[in-house]
Structures are given as structure tokens and as C-alpha cells.
Amino acid sequence: MSSAGKRATLQKRPDEVATMFDEVAPRYDVMNDLLSLGQTRRWRKIVLDAVDAAPGQRVLDLAAGTGTSSEPYADAGVDVVACDFSLGMLRVGKRRRPDIDFIAGDATNLPFADNSFDAVTISFGLRNVNDPKKALSEMLRVAKPGGRIVIAEFSTPTNPLWRTMYIEYLMRALPEVARRASSNPDAYVYLAESIRAWPDQDNLAAWLADAGWGDVTYRNLSGGIVAVHRAHKPAAHDPSHAPGGMLPAKLRRARRTAGY
Ligand SMILES: C[S@@+](CC[C@H](N)C(=O)[O-])C[C@H]1O[C@@H](n2cnc3c(N)ncnc32)[C@H](O)[C@@H]1O
């Protein structure tokens, strides 16, 4: 199938997304380093600091893929659960890190009990979930009261010139590099298009607040190419929370410089 044909049918249908990641799994981490020009390592360190998990705490790394985002927690003595719905990605991860608990599960219907994690995190995964708002609600359900969420996701560069250069890279250079280096170049055309279609920093902050998360903040990395959002589950979580628009005060709080 031509890349255009494949893309047209790839409307984030869960089975197609899982198959796509199954196909890229063997070279996923190499391609990540290549296409991010080595930036992913720095971004991951910032996410780890934002999650701020102590040894013995239980952390859910959702859409964990091959477990690259989960490894630093395991190395720090944190009880990390790496959950993903691509069996291909999980298999690569389990082979590399048999000590990590890899669990197959869908972000929109998590196979975990209520209030069971000290922190929940998702790196470069939420954008791929077919119903990301449902995933934010599920993450809230499984987090303990007072627990935190940290999301790392591609976002919108704040400087217009930087934004133009970045979009040029995304739409032209990245698919070209992928065509030469990846077993599934279509996946990287999808990557570029899904990044462009993704909500900006403030809109994602509003989604978090709508899902019931409190104290929403975010920090821009690499000029906003990536944003790290952080929030807490209210200590006395009201499950009947009625979603609504994000209040201006909450939005102001999200915009303030995050302290991580
Ligand atoms: C770009 S990878 C990120 C992997 C890892 N977190 C990292 O930082 O390298 C995105 C992952 O999201 C997973 N994913 C997409 N939709 C999902 C869903 N509904 N439930 C669980 N995992 C999902 C894919 O299978 C894929 O492994």
C-alpha cells in the first residue's frame, strides 16, 4: 500500500497503532535517538526528576513501549510497571530488561485497581492513544489520592521562527531520514502528522484539569518541541467530578513556570 493510502486509513485505530509499533519495535530506540538528534536522553532525565519517585514507590509508566522510559525508575529502585498494548514493543523490552514488570494493557481501559500507584507517567504515548481524554481519566482512577501525573509529549514551539523551522524539519527532513533508516517509513510520516495535530501546551493543560487533575503545571523543553505537564490527583478525589472548561485561575497556574 502506498504511504498516502496507509496514512489515510491510520486514524489512530487501536489495532493499526499497535501493529505500527509492533513493526517499528526492533529499531524503535535507535530511530528515536537519530530523529531527536540525541535530545531524548535529556528529556527523559527531566521527566524522571518531575516524577520524583522514591525507592519502593509504585509508578505506572503507561505506553511504555520497549521500556526505555521505564528503565531509569527500575535503576533507582522504584517499583515500575511498564504497560503498553503493542506486544511487539513489550517483547523487545522484556528481552532487554527481564527485571521490569511489563504488562499488556490499553490506556483507555487500564488493567489496574483504583488508587494503586504513587505516580503515573506517559512519555510520547498520549498522542498515539485513540481517546486521550479517556486515558487521562483512567490514569486519575489508578493514581492514589495526592498522587502525581507527568506527561512528556511533543508540543508547540513558542518562538514563531523556531516553530517554522521545526515544522519544516517534521514535514520534510524527518520522513526523508526515516525513509532511509526505518523498516516502516510510513510510521514516521504518521509521527510528523500526529505531532502537528496535537493540542498545544495550554490545551493539554485544560484536558488535564477537565479530567479532574489538580495543580496543573507545565515546562517547555527545547523551546516547546516537547512539553512536560505535571499535576496531582486531589487528596479527596470526587469520582462524580463533572468535566467542564478550565477556569482562568487554573489556566494561569498551568502557565506559571513549573518548578522541575
Ligand atoms: C512513541 S511510543 C513511546 C514509548 C515509550 N514511552 C518511550 O518513551 O520510548 C508510544 C507507545 O504508545 C503505545 N500506545 C498507543 N496507544 C496505546 C493504548 N491505547 N494503550 C496502550 N499503549 C498504547 C504504543 O504501542 C507505543 O508503544
Automatic annotation (TrEMBL):
Pathway: Quinol/quinone metabolism; menaquinone biosynthesis; menaquinol from 1,4-dihydroxy-2-naphthoate: step 2/2
Enzyme class: transferase
Protein name: Demethylmenaquinone methyltransferase
InterPro entries: SAM-dependent_MTases_sf, UbiE/COQ5_MeTrFase
GO BP term (any one): menaquinone biosynthetic process
Binding-site positions, S-adenosyl-L-methionine: 66, 84, 106-107, 123
Catalytic activity: a 2-demethylmenaquinol + S-adenosyl-L-methionine = a menaquinol + S-adenosyl-L-homocysteine + H(+)
Family statement drawn from the similarity comment of this UniProt entry: Belongs to the class I-like SAM-binding methyltransferase superfamily. MenG/UbiE family.
Keywords: Menaquinone biosynthesis, Methyltransferase, S-adenosyl-L-methionine, Transferase
Coiled coil: none
HAMAP family with a match to the protein in the record: MenG_UbiE_methyltr
Gene Ontology molecular-function annotations: demethylmenaquinone methyltransferase activity
Protein EC: 2.1.1.163
Function recorded in the entry: Methyltransferase required for the conversion of demethylmenaquinol (DMKH2) to menaquinol (MKH2).
Naturally occurring in which organism (per UniProt): Sinomonas puerhi
